[in-house]
Amino acid sequence: MRGKRMNAATMEFGTKGETLARLAPLVEDASFCAQILFSVADWKQNAEALGRRIMHEFGDGLLVVRSSSLSEDTHASSMAGVFDSVISVEPTTDAITRAVETVMASYGNGPDGNQILIQPMISNVDISGVVVTRELTVGGPYFVINYDDFSGRTDTVTSGAESKTLLVHHDSVEGLHSPRFLRLINIVRTLQTICVNALLDIEFCIAGDDITILQVRPLTMHGRWQAAPDADVASSLNHIRNGLIERAAPHNDIVGDAPVLSDMADWNPAEMIGQTPRPLALSLYRRLITDRTWCEARFDMGYRRFTPEPLLIDLGGRPYIDVRLSLNSLLPDGLSDSVADVIVTQQLAMLREQRHLHDKFEFEIALSSLDFGFAEKAKRLEVGGMGDLEVRLRGLTNAWLATRHGELQRLSDQTNQLSAGIAQAGLDLERAGLLLENCRKFGTHPFSIVARHAFIAMAFVKSLVARGAVDPSTVGRLMTSVHTVAADVVGGMHSVSKGTTTMDAFLGFCGHLRPGTYDILSARYDAAPDLYLKGSMAEPAPVEPFAWTDNAASALQSLLDEHGLEIDPGGLLDYISQSVAGREKIKFDFTRNISDALEVLAGWGEGVGLSRDDLSYLDIGVVLDGSEHEPVHLRDIVAQQREQHMATLTLRLPEVVTGVDDIGVVRMPLGMPTFTTQQAVTARSVDLERDGADALDGAIVLIEAADPGYDWILSHGIAGLVTKFGGANSHIAIRSAEFGLPAAIGCGERLFEELGRGSVIELDCAARTIRSIA
Q1: Secondary-structure breakdown of the chain: helix, strand, coil percentages, each rounded to the nearest 5
Q2: Residue 774, pLDDT above cutoff 90
Q3: pLDDT at residue 7 above 50?
C-alpha cells in the first residue's frame, strides 16, 4: 500500500482509506468510521468472501461504498469528484456488488491496486461539511467551514448543493460562538500537527456531540496562491478592530447608538468601485462623492444638518458606508435630536437583525420621503415620534414634487459647465485637477440630488404595488417607457453594426465610457472599440408611451389624497420619468470628466515612467501633487501600496459589519437579489470575465458589477443578467427594467459563485428564484 506509517506523532498520506486508518488512533477528540479497505485485485479474486465480511461486520445498516484510488488525495492532485462513490447501499450481496463494481468502473483502465472503501452510512446527522485550513482563492490564513445544517445528509456540500460558509481567521478562533465548531477547529489543528501539513481539506459530520472525520487530504492548489504574509493580515485585522472601537464612541452631533457598516448601502461602493479597489479608484470615489458631496447635496434638499464628515471608510482597503451616518442624513431637518436618535437606533437594530437588507435599506429601512408605504414601515420600527416625522416628510415631499420641473432641469443644466476652463488649463496635472473639481461641482453634486429624487420616485412605484394600486406588469410597462441615455448608447451600437452611423460619430458620443468608471486600467470604448462592438448588435425595443389606466389613476389619486400629497397622477408619472432619466443622463455626462482625467493622468505618468498599473496604486491626492515628488519617490509609494493591496486581497470581511466580533469570524450570506421584470428564462450561462464576450447572444450573462460602461452588453441580445453586486435601484436595475431584461441584481458572493460553476441557469423573476440547473 502507498505511503508508510510514521511515529505516533506524525504520518504520511496514503490513499483515502489508508489515511483514515492511520489517523484514527492518533486523534482523541474525533470519531472515525469503522471501515473495510480492499483493492480491485482483492475484489476480483475474493468478491464473495469480501461481500460476506462486509455484511458480517456492518450488520443491517446502510453502507457507503467510496473510491480510494491510488491517484486521489495526493500532494500533486486531489482528483476530487473524479471517481464514483455510492451512498445508501443496502447490506445485501447484490447491492454491495453493484456498488463496488460502479466504483471500479469509474477507475477505467486504472491499476488493480486501486482500492474500495466500505463504511457505515451515518444517520441522524445535524451538520455535515468540509473545512479547509486556508482560504482557497489566494491562500489567506482562514479556516473555511462550508456546511449544511438542514438536510441531514453527509454529501450535500461536496455535491454542490446549497450550504453555508464560515471563515475563521487563524488567530480569531476564540470568536467562534459555536462549541461544536470550536471543537471542530481544535480537531483540525490536531490533524495539522499530525500530518505535518498546514494545508488540509477535511470532510466531517456532526451528530449530537460526536464529530466524525470522513476524509482528510492535502490541499493541492497552494502553488497558485499569492497571499500576503500572515503577519500583514493579522496586523490589518488589529488595525480594523481598533478603528471600529474608536468609531463606536459618541460621535459629534450624529444620533444613533452605534454604527453599522455596509459595502452596498447608500452609495454602494462594492458595486461602483469593487470590494477591493486599488488606491486611485478608492480615493477618486471619495474625492468626488463620499467625502463631502454626499452630505452637501442632502443638506440642499432639506435633510437633517450635522457636522459634515466622510460617509465612506475603508477597512484594510475595503470600502464601507457608515449606515448610521447615512440614516442621519435621510431624516428631515428640524426633527428633534431625541426623536431622531430613537428612530435611527431602531433602524440600525433592524439592519443588525436583517443584514440581507443592507443593499435595499433605502427602501426597506430608511424613511426618507412620504410614499404610500410609510405607515407600514413606520409600524415595523415600533418607536415614538413618527407623527412628527410624517408631518416633516410630507412637507419635504410636497416641496420636491411642486418644484420638480424647474429643479430637475436646473440640476441637469449644471452639467453644461463640466468643461468650463478646461481648454485654458496648463500642465497635465492642472488639467486633470480641474476636470475632477468641475466633475464634483457640476456633476456629482447635482447627480447626488437627482439620484435621491430617483430613489424617491422608485419608492412611490414600489409602494403603489405594495398597496395594490397597480400590478408588477404595469410597473414593467412604466419603466420600459422611460427613455434613458442607455437606449441611445445601445441604439448607436446597433446603427454602427448596420452601417447607418459611423464609428467615429458613435465614439464621439460615448467613447468616454469605460466598464470601471473610476479604474484607470479599464479601457474606454474609444480605446478598444473592437472589444465592445464586435458581432451583431441587437436593436433596442421601441419606447412605448405609458399612461395610467382609469382604474390605476383613480386608485393612485385616492392614495395621494390619503397621504396629503399635492400632485395628481399625471404629475407623479412625470416626476418618476424625469428623475429616473435625469439620473442616468447626469451620470453619463459627469463620467466623461472622470474618464478624460484618467487619460490625462495616464499621459503624465508615461512621461515620468509610471505605467497605468503603477498609477492605480497611488492616491489621487498624491498623483495631483506629482510635480512635487521625484519619480523615484512615487515608485517607492507604488511598491508600498502594492504590498498593502495584497493584504487587502487576502483579507476576508463580511458585507455588513456590526462590530469587532464580525471581523475575525465571517459568515458568508446566501444572496438575496433584486429581480427585474416578471419573466422566466432558462439559458446557457456566460461568465463575462472568465468566458469573454464572443458568445453573449441568447445567454444569461454573469458579471460582478455592471457600471454604465457595461451598457454594450445590452446590445448583444442577451437572455438575462446576473450580477454579484447591485442594489434595488442601481443603474443596472434601472437599465434592466428599461430594456425589459430578466435580471437578478446583487446576488451576493456565495450565490454568484455557485451560479458560475454551472453551465445553464434558470431565472424566474416572478417566482424570485434563480438556480444553476446544469
Answers
A1: 50, 15, 35
A2: no
A3: no
The residue type of 441 is K
**Which strand ranges, in their side-by-side order, compose the sheet holding 200-207?**
31-32, 210-218, 200-207, 127-132, 142-148, 164-169, 665-668
Cβ atoms 650, 158 nearer than 8 A = no
Cα–Cα dist 126/145, whole Å? 15
Region 191-219 average pLDDT: 89
**How far from chain centre, in Å, is Cα 366?**
21
The answer to whether the beta carbons of residues 674 and 481 sit under 8 Å apart is no
Residue the block writes with cell 460619430: 505
- Contact between 428 and 603 under an 8 Å Cβ cutoff? The reply is yes
Count other C-beta atoms under 10 Å from residue 306's C-beta. Answer: 20
Q: Residues 6 or more apart from 141 whose CB is under 8 A from it? A: 134, 135, 169, 170, 171, 227, 230, 233, 234, 650
Question: Angle at CA 480, nearest 5°, toward 477 and 484?
Answer: 155
Helices (H), 72-141: 93-106
Q: Please, what sign has the CA dihedral across residues 475, 481, 482, 487?
A: positive
* Amino acid letter, 645: H
Q: Where are the alpha helices (DSSP H) in 403-528?
A: 404-413, 428-439, 445-466, 472-480, 485-498, 503-510
* 635: pLDDT strictly greater than 50: yes
Torsion sign, CA atoms 172, 178, 182, 185 = negative
Terminal Cα-to-Cα distance of the chain (whole angstroms): 38
CA 254 to chain centre: 29
pTM comes to 0.85
All structural domains of the chain, each given as residue ranges with its CATH number in brackets, are 16-224 (3.30.470.20), 666-772 (3.50.30.10)
**What was the pLDDT predicted at 569?**
97
CA distance 266 to 244: 20
CA–CA gap between residue 585 and residue 35 (Å, rounded): 68
- Which pLDDT does position 680 carry in this prediction? 83
| Three-state DSSP class for residue 101 | helix
Which has the minimum average pLDDT: 156-160, 231-235, 387-391, 465-469? 156-160
* AA letter at 53: R
Cα gap 205→224, rounded to integer Å: 29
Residue 287 CA to residue 289 CA, distance in Å, equals: 6
| CA diameter of the chain | 94
Pick the closest to residue 215 from 173, 155, 166, 164 (CA basis).
155
Which residue, 358, 274, 325, 370, is CA-closest to 727?
A: 358
For residues 472 and 79, what is the distance between their CA atoms, to the nearest angstrom?
A: 48
Please answer whether residues 91 and 55 qualify as being in contact, where contact means their C-beta atoms are separated by less than 8 angstroms.
yes
pLDDT band at 340 (very low <50, low <70, confident <90, very high): very high
> Counting every residue, how long is the chain?
774
In whole angstroms, give the CA distance from residue 219 to residue 197.
9
Report how far residue 688's alpha carbon sits from residue 516's, in angstroms, rounded to the nearest whole number.
14
Q: Which three cell numbers stand for residue 146?
A: 462550508
Which pLDDT does position 5 carry in this prediction?
A: 40
How far apart are alpha carbons 275 and 647 in whole angstroms? 13
Gyration radius (Cα) of the chain, Å: 29
Give the 3-state secondary structure of residue 28: coil
Separation of alpha carbons 148 and 130, rounded Å: 9
Burial of 640 (0-12, 13-18, 19+ CB in 10 A): exposed
What is d(CA 549, CA 569) in angstroms, rounded to the nearest whole number?
A: 10
Residue 593: closest CA among 436, 708, 420 = 436
Look up residue 335 and give its three cell numbers.
426633527
